[in-house]
Write a structure and sequence with these properties.
The protein has about 475 residues and is α/β, with parallel strands linked by helices. It folds into two domains: about 300 residues, UDP-N-acetylmuramoyl-L-alanine:D-glutamate ligase (3-Layer(aba) Sandwich); about 150 residues, Mur ligase, C-terminal domain (Protein-Tyrosine Phosphatase, Chain A), CATH 3.90.190. Helices cover about 40% and strands about 15% of the residues. The chain has 15 helices and 16 strands. The chain has a seven-stranded mixed beta sheet, sandwiched between helices. A six-stranded mixed beta sheet has the order 11-12-16-13-14-15. The protein has a three-stranded antiparallel beta sheet with strand order 8-9-10. Helix 3 crosses helix 9, helix 3 packs across helix 10 and helix 11 runs parallel beside helix 12. The radius of gyration is 22 Å and the shape is globular.
């Protein structure tokens, strides 16, 4: 008999005790470890909550979380009770499943975990690798929470890949594939066509597909799957186009003006849409949101343009080129692959003018660290290499420094303590400078709250000083 879970801490302990691929190097597991039959069994024993809710299912190498956040914000602004499922979390576990932006309370999480724990224990006793993993349990918790909260529509982000991801036990109204590039190659394949086949595994027979895939080889795979399964395909760069209008560059984190974008879809056109999330890549993600809105409207959902604009203006998404401070500008971004770093570099160049740019960088050992370094180093004047400690996939700072020395003659600062790295960067930065913390969501998770607290304190002290001076 499963011991009853009485506290929030016990609930997290139960979850973190499960097999967790987010905390394992990619060399330690493969696609054979992902079993949809196991997920089907788990959800069946919980009453198949996933069959009771309309869903928009979103996969992609990059941009799926931002697209999901923008879409959920639009749906909520239109008055639809909206569940949003994303990963990983940055600060609190409960960030992974929210309803109209609200996270479960600690007591709600305890109740949810107790509902799942007994089923999990029963499955642990089954033969054939049927013990549910951390992410499978989290996915089930999300579905149960959405049912309890009376959600009308779920926006569901894939965890890894698509075809064998635990989120792929759903009945979507629309499928979205944001982009495809090389990441998680050990699991998904080294060729972009292989990765596309895994992402395209979320496509369901007869369900419309919105695609932001631009790589020709990957796009041909998505097109083939859509044709085979009888799906309408809306493709960025074909039926769907976007035009980005950046706000004026600023060392103050874009305070001089918000970004805007225009979207064309068949005969429809939207102009001057607000873009709260920074960067040209977000205008492409925003275009995908517009295409999903069009598909949902065709299915009878009420989504007025006013709600569309309000949702895009009000969306917030932690650690995605997130500006946390001014004087100096402080940016935290979870870029952890080649494509994400390219988007970060492009946005820094377009949107920020700083006297001196300082990089705080850490990475997971199973990522293309060399590829990230090649793009980042030319943009920054000062480099601080460090490591995160909240995940065993971390690349120690001395190993990162050796890789850096083999690739570049740049002088770098090195500390294995991420908090010390941030404090060093802060001491080196003047009010007209910029600090960017990037390389991993795990680094962002480790430093974001500390940075926020210090930036708030600095802003409060500055305001008090201005008030004192009259």
């Amino acid at each position: 008999m499963q011991r009853r879970i009485d506290s929030y801490e016990q609930a997290l302990e139960f979850l973190y005790s499960r097999v967790n691929f987010e905390r394992q190097s990619s060399s330690q597991y493969g696609l054979g470890d992902f079993l949809l039959d196991r997920m089907r069994q788990l959800l069946h024993r919980l009453g198949n909550p996933q069959d009771q809710l309309p869903t928009v299912h979103i996969a992609g190498t990059k941009g799926k979380g931002s697209t999901a956040a923008m879409l959920a914000s639009v749906l909520s602004a239109a008055g639809h009770r909206t569940g949003l499922f994303t990963s990983p979390h940055i600060t609190q576990f409960e960030e992974r499943f929210t309803v109209d932006g609200r996270q479960p309370s600690p007591d709600e999480l305890v109740d949810l975990v107790n509902q799942v724990a007994e089923v999990v224990q029963a499955m642990d006793e089954l033969p054939g690798a049927m013990s549910p993993t951390y992410f499978e349990i989290v996915t089930a918790l999300g579905w149960l929470y959405f049912i309890r909260q009376g959600v009308q529509l779920v926006v569901l982000e894939v965890g890894l890949g698509g075809r064998l991801d635990s989120t792929n036990i759903c009945r979507p109204n629309v499928c979205v594939i944001t982009s495809i590039s090389r990441d998680h190659t050990k699991q998904l394949g080294y060729r972009v066509e292989q990765i596309a086949a895994e992402k395209g595994g979320i496509i369901k027979t007869g369900v419309p597909v919105v695609s932001g895939v631009l790589d020709p080889a990957a796009l041909s795979v998505i097109e083939r799957i859509a044709v085979e399964r009888g799906c309408r395909l809306v493709q960025l760069g074909r039926e769907l186009t976007s035009t980005y209008h950046p706000g004026a560059p600023s060392a103050l984190g874009g305070a001089s003006g918000i970004d805007h974008f225009d979207v064309s879809l068949d005969s429809q056109r939207w102009t001057g849409l607000p873009l709260a999330l920074l960067g040209e890549h977000q205008s492409r993600n925003g275009a995908l949101v517009l295409a999903v809105v069009a598909e949902l409207r065709a299915q009878g959902w009420s989504l007025p343009d006013e709600a569309l604009e309000r949702g895009l203006r009000e969306v917030r998404w932690a650690s995605r080129i997130e500006v946390l401070g001014e004087y100096p500008a402080v940016i935290v971004d979870g870029a952890h692959n080649w494509a994400a770093v390219a988007a970060l570099v492009e946005t820094l160049t377009q949107r920020f003018r700083a006297r001196h740019k300082i990089l705080v960088f850490a990475a997971s050992r199973d990522k293309d660290v060399a590829g990230m370094i090649r793009q980042l180093y030319p943009v920054f004047d000062t480099i601080v290499l460090t490591a995160f400690h909240n995940n065993p996939r971390n690349l120690p700072a001395d190993e990162l420094a050796r890789l850096s020395d083999a690739m570049s003659s740049r002088a770098v600062h090195v500390t294995n303590n991420s908090a010390a790295a941030w404090k060093l960067a802060r001491r080196l930065a003047g009010p007209e400078d910029l600090i960017c913390v990037t390389g991993s969501f795990f680094l962002a998770a480790e430093l974001r709250e500390q940075i926020l607290d210090e930036c708030r304190e600095t802003a409060t002290n500055s305001l008090a000083e201005e008030t004192r001076r009259g």
